[in-house]
Q: What sequence folds into this?
């Protein structure tokens, strides 16, 4: 596990974009796992800027989003379909049929739909690079606390904390979806490489538990300790509660000298 501590949100976004752009250039047919939320917005903006400069071609990539609210059609302004179109896909050249986002409008036979989503990830060759944010409660995707660490894509009831964190996006609390379709923790752990981005003091406790706490279903992100290639890119505020910051800096210096490809 690598922990990269940057000064602020802008630096986190730039570092995430640098690594992601490098991965796309190294493998133009890369399969990406993508996240929504406020955290990756700066990363998407930086990738769009590379693309606008003629520096980054997305025509060969495939993408799979982590999650979608149940009950929201793609046209709903708070749907993750809409978020991705507005903040990323409408600005770059990912072919429409290379984009996969769980369908929030399904009704019934959720298990079969979710199994199909898993099969389409496998058919694409698996996810090469997964981008993650982290919830204040330690969730990744919408894998709320007590999610099985072996879980697969499924229908998931949202926790009170997640509903509280996101209800201001909706006109009234009643309109905030209570469930989502989300990739599972087991699904995420199968991706070949994971980049988790976090910014701000509100994430500090979750980040510390994920990196330094015990592996527990109470903190879904702690499952990443079992993944062989995870990089946390976090700002000073999000790193606030880590006890081993000096060691992480030392590891990073040594990585830059001996295995710089892990940071490219
Ligand atoms: C989004 C997702 C969530 C968010 C998390 C943090 O697709 O899966 O796990 O990454 O809720 O959200 P923000 O970035 O808005 O703080």
A:
């Amino acid at each position: 596990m690598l922990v990269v501590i940057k000064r602020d949100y802008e630096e986190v976004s730039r570092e995430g974009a640098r690594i992601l752009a490098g991965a796309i250039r190294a493998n133009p047919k890369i399969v990406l796992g993508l996240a929504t939320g406020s955290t990756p917005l700066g990363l998407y903006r930086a990738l769009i800027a590379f693309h606008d400069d003629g520096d980054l071609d997305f025509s060969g990539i495939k993408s799979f989003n982590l999650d979608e609210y149940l009950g929201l059609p793609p046209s709903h302004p708070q749907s993750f379909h809409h978020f991705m179109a507005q903040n990323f896909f409408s600005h770059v050249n990912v072919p429409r049929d290379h984009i996969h986002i769980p369908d929030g409008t399904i009704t019934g036979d959720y298990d079969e739909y979710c199994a199909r989503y898993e099969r389409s990830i496998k058919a694409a060759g698996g996810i090469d690079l997964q981008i993650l944010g982290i919830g204040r409660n330690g969730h990744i995707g919408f894998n709320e606390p007590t999610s099985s660490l072996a879980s697969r894509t499924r229908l998931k009831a949202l926790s009170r904390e997640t509903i509280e964190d996101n209800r201001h996006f909706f006109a009234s609390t009643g309109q905030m979806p209570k469930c989502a379709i989300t990739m599972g923790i087991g699904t995420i752990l199968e991706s070949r490489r994971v980049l988790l981005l976090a910014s701000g003091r509100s994430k500090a406790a979750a980040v510390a538990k994920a990196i330094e706490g015990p592996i527990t279903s109470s903190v879904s992100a702690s499952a990443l300790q079992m993944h062989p290639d995870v990089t946390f890119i976090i700002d000073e505020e999000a790193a606030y509660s880590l006890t081993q910051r000096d060691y992480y800096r030392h590891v990073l210096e040594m990585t830059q000298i001996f295995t710089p490809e892990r940071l490219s």
Q: What stands out?
A: DSSP finds eight helices and ten strands in the chain.
